[in-house]
Amino acid sequence: MAPRPALISPARLAAFEVLRRVFEEEAYADRALRVAAERLDPRDAALARQLAYGAVQRARTLDHAIETLGRRPLRRLDAPVRAALRLGAYQLAFLDGVPRYAAVNESVELVRRAGLERAVAFTNAVLRRLAEGARELVEALPESTPAEAALRHSYPDWVAETWWRDLGADGARALMRAQNEPPETVVRLVRGTIDGTPDAGIPGAWHVDRVDGAALAEGRIWPQSRGSQLAGLAVGSRAGERVLDLCAAPGGKATMLAGEVVAVELNEARARELEDNARRLGARGVTVVCADGRALPPALDGFDRALVDAPCSGLGVLAARPDLRWRSQPLAELQLELLQAAAARVRHGGTVVYSVCTINADECEAVVDASGLAVDPTLGEEWPRFRHQARPDFLRTLPHVHGGAGFFVARLRVP
Ligand SMILES: C[S@@+](CC[C@H](N)C(=O)[O-])C[C@H]1O[C@@H](n2cnc3c(N)ncnc32)[C@H](O)[C@@H]1O
């Protein structure tokens, strides 16, 4: 009698689909998961997320274990075999409480169901070797140089080298570890009350177990990291002022600003999304303009304040976006152009806040320095907890120091 095919749990099926979409179609992990986990109950959906995000995030370390123990270069394997091996290896090397037979047998079955019968015996053999040795292999990986730490903690070499340079070896290693952990869930309370704990350092920020879908739909909350809320608060706009938000969608910060806010967004679909969000959150002062922030219509001038929450490499939000580390790149040139464009539209004596969800000097301090604008030293005095150690006029949140996302914030004065 032929052996009965193993059952595959819905969570592993969904995680496998996410892995394939991320690495074969360059899909964003969060969007792929939303589709793959649509019909799962909350427990399975949470497990699918843990498996998919973990395997995407740890792909480099997992590939090393698979190649070492499988004795075959990963690039010579069919894509579904690679995905099944990564999923199995992640459970075997990094998760406690997952029965080995489930991690092994279900990954083998995923390969069979993908129509790759000829690869089943190989997959099975590699997974058995991983079950025996993957955890020890990963735990024994050294981390005394950027290249070693990048392999051990699963980051591209350039990210490890950048953090080594900016934060030193201990800081870089701690940051790498921190961004491999699930991120905290924080929302901004827009109105009403909420189940959760108010943050001690950022007024309006609440720590919650999960984002309440009904509260989100009714515009009572907005999921927003503490670092991101800090950047919005740093603008410090008041009623009656004219404020330019040059990179505004989806609107997390635009909708927290007082005054008449012109919210500029380049991408048309994102501009529409921003309009919807502003309406839902009751931000009546926000007017959306779909345009390139570097080429604004002449009438948009003479603002009291501006915010440039620029596109960036996102090195401060890698915990929340597991695939980002594999596609991330610094955008210093664009950032400088946007900062200069904003400053040109602010009246003499006004201020520009420059913020990015990244923590590498090239996109942070270096952009501010290159702009030639004077730094407003009162920002560091307003938020002493988040002062940048080396440059105390700037704010910087660090995942391994403050928890949550990494952000850089500077306030500049227009002469
Ligand atoms: C970091 S996100 C902004 C997040 C937003 N401030 C918030 O708090 O929700 C950067 C945004 O800038 C937009 N963008 C990129 N290049 C731009 C440009 N040249 N002009 C205006 N917006 C741009 C991107 O489409 C993206 O929506």
UniProtKB/TrEMBL annotation:
Record keyword Transferase present = yes
Tell me, which GO biological process terms does this entry list?
Answer: regulation of DNA-templated transcription; RNA methylation
Q: Which GO terms describe its molecular function?
A: RNA binding; RNA methyltransferase activity
Indicate the family of this protein: Belongs to the class I-like SAM-binding methyltransferase superfamily. RsmB/NOP family.
Q: Which UniProt keywords apply?
A: Methyltransferase, RNA-binding, S-adenosyl-L-methionine, Transferase
Q: Which Gene3D superfamilies match?
A: NusB-like, Vaccinia Virus protein VP39
SAM-dependent MTase RsmB/NOP-type domain: which residues? 139-415
For S-adenosyl-L-methionine, which residues are the binding ones?
C247, A248, A249, P250, G251, G252, K253, E265, D292, D309
Q: Which residues form the active site?
A: C357
**Which InterPro entries does the record match to this protein?**
MeTrfase_RsmB-F_NOP2_cat, MeTrfase_RsmB-F_NOP2_dom, NusB-like_sf, NusB_RsmB_TIM44, RCMT, RsmB/NOL1/NOP2-like_CS, SAM-dependent_MTases_sf
Q: What is the protein's given name?
A: tRNA and rRNA cytosine-C5-methylase
